[in-house]
Fold:
Amino acid sequence: MNRVFKALADPTRRRVLELLRQRPMTAGELADQFAVSKPTMSAHFAVLREADLVDAAKQGATITYRLKLSVLEDAILGFAQAFGMGAPVEAASVQAKETLS
Amino acid sequence: MNRVFKALADPTRRRVLELLRQRPMTAGELADQFAVSKPTMSAHFAVLREADLVDAAKQGATITYRLKLSVLEDAILGFAQAFGMGAPVEAASVQAKETLS
DNA sequence: CAATCATTTAGATATTTAGCTAAATACCAA
DNA sequence: TTGGTATTTAGCTAAATATCTAAATGATTG
Structure:
């Protein structure tokens, strides 16, 4: 989870995740969207992989990256929940849950 | 928003926010919860202030920090929404309710 | 006023991070 | 096999970050 937050700390990486949210893309396609070198992008991909936020699938010479939305969700929603965030309607339920534990 | 994510990248700072979620605390009280020096904590507080995640109120010699939950919410829920994530708390609450009844 | 308490600032160091270019690797096609 | 495309690895630099101790600031108290 710490790795996820570290990964999210960089705007380039957040943008990569947003792009991947729409469809899987190859490393090259992703790199084309940014004004940095491909090796730099490759390093960003490595951070995202280590955070388990993306999945890399090699097809021949190209590597397709795919967002692992559930991992992102677990981190973000888990964190949000620790702060009692959410639709206002849920406030009572959170309290109910806390009362249980 | 970038500053918020940068601030959240450090586990000590996330923990500070969680402590402040329960009640406002002074810099000293907060510092006592961690195994790092007070100057180090002071630097963490500065990062949180610059991200506008906390509010600092000086009363005499002490400074009381208070979580600005709405700022945290705007960042986290805004981000979650960009990924089409649902209201964070909902699923858990439903389960809590079911457990209750 | 002098001592003390709470917190920050200053200054130093070590580690991490983001970026680059050049080179290596792996694959595909002619 | 030769050349080209896709991507990563290696090696480097510059900047940012996290940490420390020592000192400064400012408020409180004897």
Remarks:
- The mean pLDDT of chain B is 89.
- The radius of gyration of chain B is 16 Å.
- The first strand of chain B starts at residue 25 and ends at 26.
